[in-house]
Amino acid sequence: MPRLLLIDDDPALILTQLRLAFPDPSYRIEAARTGAEGIERIGAERPDVILLDVRLPDQFGLEVFQTIRRLDTRIPVIFVTVVKTADETIEAMRQGAYDYLFKPLDLHQLRRVVGEALEVGRLMNQQAVVSETDLVPDVHDAIVGSCPAMREVYKAIGRVADQNVPVLITGESGTGKELIARAIYQHGPRAKALFLALNCAAIPEQLLESEMFGHEKGAFTGANRRRIGKFEQCNGGTLFLDEIGDMSPHLQAKILRAVQEQTFERLGGNETIRTNVRLIAATHRDLKAWSAEGKFRPDLYYRLAVFTIHLPSLRERSDDLPMLVQFYLRRFSRELGREVREVAPETLERLRDYSWPGNIRELQSVIKQALLQAHGEVLLPEFLPADLPVENGGGRVCETVPGFRPGMTLAEVEREAIQQCLFQTGGNRLRTAGLLKISTRTLLRKIREYGLEDPLRPTAPDENSSEH
Questions:
Q1: What predicted TM-score, i.e. pTM, was given to this entire model?
Q2: Domain limits, CATH 3.40.50.2300, in the chain
Q3: Percent of the chain beyond pLDDT 70?
Q4: What pLDDT is attached to residue 403?
Q5: What is the pLDDT, as a whole number, of residue 367?
């Protein structure tokens, strides 16, 4: 149960708003009227988010904040103030406060800011890596897998976590790149400092620049107060920039300077600000190819790629699928109030035969949809989403297969498609599976079925071995 602590000498109205926005029994809300009482409560039991008044009867809010930082840097602190030009609040943001709100509070803004702070706090404290066989559903997000490619990922995290160098995480969308970034953070020397994340593809350019570097009052229309950006707010901590390949050339230049020199200016300002941030970036794009084509700054690419971790797609991890399915089945069953404990072999076989273009994110969605349809203790194939295709290589490429003739059976078309793709890739199974949009496990089964172990000298198929 998330715990919110309000430190305010007149808490009545804000407490009412908090309880409206975050009702019992899902949230626990407490109040302290002085800084000393607030510090005592924090020492007794760590809250998930703190709302802190700037003016308290026994001490200044900034003094209380500095004490909180000494106790635990990772607790998000949101300042509450009636003074819209409070230098104390700006200074708190520079020292790592999460955000600040003005009295009287807007309920929608309160719900948004506190909700985001709860998520940031969870990300900093939630375990991001479990062992290769530990499927404890209490872990909200976990890196699960024991295939060779994932073992290499674990080794890479271990090698780089203690090093104060930028890290570039690559991989298709939905493979879990933010989880890898959090694992690096949690296993490194900055684990007690802030971890903040930004999705560069989800924010318009001017707003993204302000989010990262801040802005001065009047820097653009609507900039009615100074804003402290993530590079300044996260001083001493770790900043994760997701989808950095979608960033504009202008922002790429500012990022390069911030990484190289640890200095920057706020938008609309000329004061040079120093920071000490460890940068972890992620992208689903091939930045090396993009830099060669002039779509991404080569100097920034080489600076970010000091250490690169590549996450395999789910179709490259077919051996991990049963473990992943079981992990998410147990986790989502509990969240959705279902009693499903097992996966029918036919269900698992159908999941294995799908290529998962959306990777882990798509698998999570499919498991949730199936559980919402499920009854009983076993996840049956009929519970799976109706639009989850039963993939078949021949069914996808019939008309484009060289040698296709009207009247060919589906098995003949499928065999011809696999044969031609094997020729095209020189027998590379992984590339062939990618061309056919099927899993490597399905491809290997079809290769055995059709006698295509040697693509240059295939044996005649066993007519009785077909599964059609």
A1: 0.73
A2: 3-121
A3: 88
A4: 58
A5: 96
Residue 7: predicted pLDDT = 96
Average pLDDT over residues 301-329: 92
Distance separating alpha carbons of residues 462 and 89, to the nearest angstrom: 76
CA distance linking residue 257 with residue 212, whole number of Å: 13
- Other beta carbons within 10 Å of 13: 12
Q: Locate CATH 1.10.8.60 in the chain.
A: 314-383
pLDDT of 349-365, one tens digit each?
Answer: 889 888 898 999 999 99
Torsion over CA of 100, 106, 107 and 110, rounded to 10 degrees?
-10
Query: Homologous superfamily of 148-310 in CATH?
Result: P-loop containing nucleotide triphosphate hydrolases (3.40.50.300)
d(CA 55, CA 128): 37
Cα separation, 118 vs 106, in Å, equals 18
Residue span(s) of the chain under CATH 3.40.50.300 come to 148-310
CATH 3.40.50.2300 fits 3-121, yes or no: yes
**Which CATH fold would you assign to the domain 314-383?**
Helicase, Ruva Protein; domain 3 (1.10.8)
Q: Which of 87-96, 205-214, 253-262, 393-402 has the lowest mean pLDDT?
A: 393-402
Joined together, the tokens standing for residue 351 give 């999941």
* Helix (H), strand (E) at residue 39: helix 35-44
